[in-house]
Amino acid sequence: MTLLTLSSVAKSYGSVAAVAGVDLAAQSGSRTAIVGPSGCGKTTLLRLIAGFEVPDAGSITLGGEIMSNADAHVAAYRRNIGIVAQDGCLFPHLSVLDNIGFGMDADRDAKQARAAELMEMVGLDGAMLARKPDQLSGGQQQRVALARALARRPRLMLLDEPFSALDMGLRTATRKAVADVLSAAGVTTILVTHDQAEALAFADQLVVMRAGKFAQVGTPRDVYLKPVDRATATFLGEAVVLPAVVGDGIADSPIGRLEVADVTYRGRAQIMIRPEQFTVSRIEYAPDIGVSAVVSDVVFCGPSLDARITLAGDGIAEGEISFRLDIPGRELLASGDRVSIGISGRVHLLADA
């Protein structure tokens, strides 16, 4: 069942269209991540859903009830939406117990019981209820902020860059814990982030936003492997984009003949290959025919090598085509090495070729 529906939602500030007529549906219990560069409209969209901003056009429906349209606007406090911000926004003068219980319409004993239940749910010791926020780590503060947002049993949870202030190891652990809690509680969630890996790992629906519009909406796997255009492909991670001539499901490219999923397209195009599809091996000798490749630069990063691969061969000008790859450190490649390149799986034909 669809819980949240956005229909042609738009919001401008002067001549700047922060949100330019977007449509979205979020199913009950689902997790949607909205990812995009700074200034693309992610936070404005979240504020529109929360009720902090009024859309200039379009409608927002939650649980079958209209929250905003041309004729009505339900105030934020009446929407029963939980929000967790980047810094948690805990009240520094209140204990953890009082932070979680803030806004709950219940007596002290009921708040204590609910807070203890939520602390267990978010994986924190109930003994921390007496502490103040400055006595907690960053990850603990974010879990308390989540507990506070869950205290009133919201029907929708909005997460605005909630993990960005945490270090990498803590960030990953906290993100997984939060995702597990929200799934167990069955709460529909919208996450806004600029971190592509975070969005891919967290969501079951991914939205790529650019200049106030949705560039692509789909499952994380589909959006990553089948981006609609080059900008989306490169935003979601490293992508090698090469020219090719395509026909009958085969792309003739600078690195050889490769299979493409689209068997109907014929003509010149651009193909996208993700770095994990590559295998690169050093070769002691390669005949001076066809296509060869050289490691033009390499940086040792422990388990991996950050290598720039430059293609050479018939029809390819020196240095014309190069790209970077993360290669397993076991290959022990050095700058100047000649390498063979293999591609696993089909390559993706970009729509904006």
Automatic annotation (TrEMBL):
GO terms for cellular component: ATP-binding cassette (ABC) transporter complex. It holds the Pfam family TOBE_2. The keyword Nucleotide-binding applies. Residues 4-236 form the ABC transporter domain. CDD domains: ABC_Carb_Solutes_like (cd03259). GO terms for molecular function: ABC-type ferric iron transporter activity; ATP binding; ATP hydrolysis activity. The keyword ATP-binding applies. Keywords: ATP-binding, Cell membrane, Ion transport, Iron, Iron transport, Membrane, Nucleotide-binding, Transport. GO terms for biological process: quaternary ammonium group transport. Belongs to the ABC transporter superfamily. This is Iron(III) transport system ATP-binding protein.
